[in-house]
Predict the 3D structure of the following.
Amino acid sequence: MELSVALAVMVILTAGIFTLASGGLELLNDVQDLQQRETRKRRFVELCRQNLESLPAGAEVSFSYEPRGGHYDTYLSVRHAPSAFGFGRGDFEVQRVVIAAEVDSSGFIRASIYYLDAEADDRYERGDMSSLDSRSLQLMRRLRQLSWNFYDSSRLEWVDVLPKGSNNPSMIALTVAGEGEPEPVRAVFWVPARQIEDPPQGAPASPNGNEGANQPPAEADGQGQPAPTEESASEAPVR
């Protein structure tokens, strides 16, 4: 009887210790996973800050979005900046770098960088997103929100869409939140003003009458599409 009681007590204590140890390991794994995701998010923010705030004088910043499945894929692009986001570009001449926030099959957002050569850049200018199928580098995944805002100096307010053909915004705000994170992180970056060099004497003027030959004609916000709000443009449902 005493031996049976002792064995029963030992089994109960062993089960309790095992349960506590398993719960502690799960909690430790959750904390480590949260720390890793937070570190990746902070690194992504700093990566955008370093590259956007150090753009060359001739760089052109533009923004576009594509509606898909009740959500919006957004594309912030930098043109004429050969040193921007320099890792992963490969052995070809980069004309444009695109930071894409695209909703994947899981319903979350993935952040990727696309490097476009001259041919792909021409298709991108025409609105052909098939140019983004190759030469990409995935930075983050399973994001709940990734959105951009632009400071309109003429209206002294933040806007969700950067009109095509407009000058570079003086500031760009990035809002990003991962899976299961209740509070997003918001960071504001200063963007250097674009300086367009005067064309050589005798060179033909650009079609829209501006000095910059690569300046696209101004169009309505979103090319006639309804402008997405900060929530609808880049948020995906948590599953």
User: Anything to note?
Assistant: Residues 203-239 have pLDDT under 50 and may be disordered.
